[in-house]
């Protein structure tokens, strides 16, 4: 009998009861705007910022409307101007080059390795072209962060980390987001905590964070923030920093606070799913498992494997056969951007030169989400299905 998987790849877990309860309190209060607080009340948003800063070991945190907004705000805080070049990953999600384009800057794409991380040799070669790197830890893969920071420090490049897929991950004991001068997280439904939409930005830098808070639309109410630089720092920036409204409200903050308290537990659950899937995929002929460096503590909220040098028709055949058995795979190699997947040559507003080595990798990347509504047993089933279908198509070669 052919095994069919019946789980749903986009089904998230419910918001924890504690979050629902806190959200209802906010709704009953009628005070949803972050600066609309009762006398003596800090408000959910300011408390979220204070707690997330502490959790990440950062001095400051700002909660905003989305991860993409956090990225664009970082660039503005850094003073990136129209026409400036910004280094970024060729393998990332569309909001990353989009954030760069939103400030009128121009992305310079850096290649991707078979380990699915930024190609440090290519970064070194392009280091002279820009003084900001927007580093996307795409799909949760961390590059050698020690080496990356050496390269960037030697070239006076400031690093903004896109931690949309690495909230809770670390490199050699340092949390993801603590290497760069600023780091951005997404709290959108498909990430590690879920408020529908939302973003978090952290930094230890006084001026950058004061600018970011003003940019986010604090008006002159920045004193109400709990994870902010001293008020004196705002004196120098408050008249010259535009308000580009993108705040987070109390409702979303209320939903997020209990989820952040559970982050470590959730990450451990994701990794159990990841390891089971990876185990089941190992030694499938024609399929390359992406090996994880031992310095990396990852969060396996999705898994990638490579069908390197496969003909397009064969990859499509694998996707079709897996889909017929209930396993939804995404392919980064498709000629046309589809769903959430696109790649550097799809972003035609940002001209790029071909990168043959990266193209070979991108053409082979197959991606799958691992929502926490799946069990470890589900992951074993999924891996068996992928293994069978990849093997069948491979053998027919
Ligand atoms: C989701 C995502 C973002 C942007 O987050 P939004 O909250 O959706 O704006 C940025 N980078 C990567 C890699 C992402 O996956």
Can you describe this structure?
Belongs to the DegT/DnrJ/EryC1 family. Pfam families: DegT_DnrJ_EryC1. One of its GO terms (molecular function) is pyridoxal phosphate binding. This protein has 2 domains: 17-261, 3-Layer(aba) Sandwich (Aspartate Aminotransferase, domain 2); 263-396, Aspartate Aminotransferase, domain 1, CATH 3.90.1150.10. Helix content is 38%, strand content 14%. The protein is built from 13 helices and 14 strands. The strands form 3 sheets. Strands 1-9-8-5-4-2-3 form a 7-stranded mixed beta sheet, with helices on both faces. Strands 10-12-14-13 form a 4-stranded antiparallel beta sheet. Strands 7-6-11 form a 3-stranded antiparallel beta sheet, with no helix packed on it. The longest helix has 20 residues, at 376-395. It is globular, with a radius of gyration of 21 Å. The structure holds pyridoxal-5'-phosphate. The site of pyridoxal-5'-phosphate (PLP) has 15 residues, from helix 3 and helix 4.
